[in-house]
Amino acid sequence: MDYDDVNVKLKEIEELLQSLSKQHPKEISAFSRFLREVAETKALTTREKELIALALGIAAGCEWCIYLHTQKAMEAGAKKEELIEAGLVAVLMAGGPALMHLIPLMKAIEVFEKEHDGA
Question: Domains along the chain?
Answer without folding.
Answer: 3-118 (1.20.1290.10)
